[in-house]
């Protein structure tokens, strides 16, 4: 090849490279929006996020306190009032997600739906209005809750984390050790104790008396029993409305500030004081507390008691709060391998 030929080849290669670079600069990453509805025992939560294939961005979150699982612990069924309000919230959330361009919408139920004898009736009614609901297993709920914080930069410095996720009818607990790029599970269990369940059984009424509080505390302690003996909790993180409300109340927030709530620390003693402060109140008085989310006045005192007893059981001095939950992990990562959702 002559020098002139070589120059032409070099020019052609540069020209092709420039064309490729120019074409690449015109290519825009296709974004996609997805939505998940957390059909919880006490509330429904809509999450809509968008991804560019690299990272996820929050588009909208909405909450509706519908008390789907109220009384389910004692009656074994989902009440008509809770089902009606939850179905209405589902329809509204699906419409909202569609209007925002969500390409997929997944609604998943938790403990109340899992244990209800009339589960199929609720699922059929949800499907009939075009808002189908699947049911998460307890293990999947615990694993997804853990996954929602496992790679969160806010907790990246901790080699061992424990996640406590109190709900209306169940509380999930999981502990894992960081192992290379993944995690080694040390403990994972879903316990059949939640705010609505206790309100309808051991902590009935708006202002539980001290003997009832002691009985409920002992029942939670007995339920956990020796399950966690010999394990080390590492850094504890609480998910859900109890933790976020404890922080927003402490900070006297009149507007939701997730960036201020996420990662905030709650001492064990602080949580215990909150239990002692709010248990004697009636629902109306708790509703007037600055920073409380509307609708949480019926359960916030019980949720705080559950968090206190679980922290005591694992031997943690307190917990950080995450504004994320299993719904975020389900949206971003899908169900865990070998899931048992139905």
H/E series, N to C?
HEEEHHEHHEHEEEHHEHHEHHHEH
Q: Give the CATH architecture of the largest domain.
A: 2-Layer Sandwich
Termini separation comes to 68 Å
**What sort of overall outline do the alpha carbons produce when their principal axes are compared?**
globular
| Domains, number | 2
Q: Mean pLDDT across all residues, rounded?
A: 92
What is the CATH first-level class name of the largest domain?
Alpha Beta
Number of helix segments? 14
Q: Count the strands?
A: 11
Major sheet: size, sense and barrel closure? Answer: 6 strands, mixed
Q: Give the C-alpha Rg.
A: 24 Å
Strand content range: 15-25%
The secondary-structure class comes to: alpha/beta
CATH superfamily of the largest domain: Exopolyphosphatase. Domain 2
Strand order in the sheet with the most strands: 8-7-6-9-11-10
Task: Summarize the structure in words.
There is one protein chain. This protein has helices at 3-26, 72-75, 80-99, 111-115, 119-128, 138-150, 195-199, 210-224, 241-250, 258-261, 268-278, 283-287, 300-314, 326-333; strands spanning 32-39, 43-51, 56-65, 104-109, 133-135, 160-166, 171-179, 182-191, 235-238, 265-267, 318-321. The chain is of the alpha/beta class. The chain has two domains: 32-135, Nucleotidyltransferase, domain 5 (2-Layer Sandwich), CATH 3.30.420.40; 139-326, 2-Layer Sandwich (Nucleotidyltransferase, domain 5), CATH 3.30.420. The strands form two sheets. It has a six-stranded mixed sheet with strand order 8-7-6-9-11-10, with helices on both faces. A five-stranded mixed sheet has the order 3-2-1-4-5, with helices on both faces. A hairpin with a 4-residue loop joins strand 6 (160-166) and strand 7 (171-179). Helix 11 (268-278) runs antiparallel to helix 13 (300-314). It is globular, with a radius of gyration of 24 Å. The protein starts with a helix and ends in a 9-residue tail after the last helix. The relative contact order is 0.14.
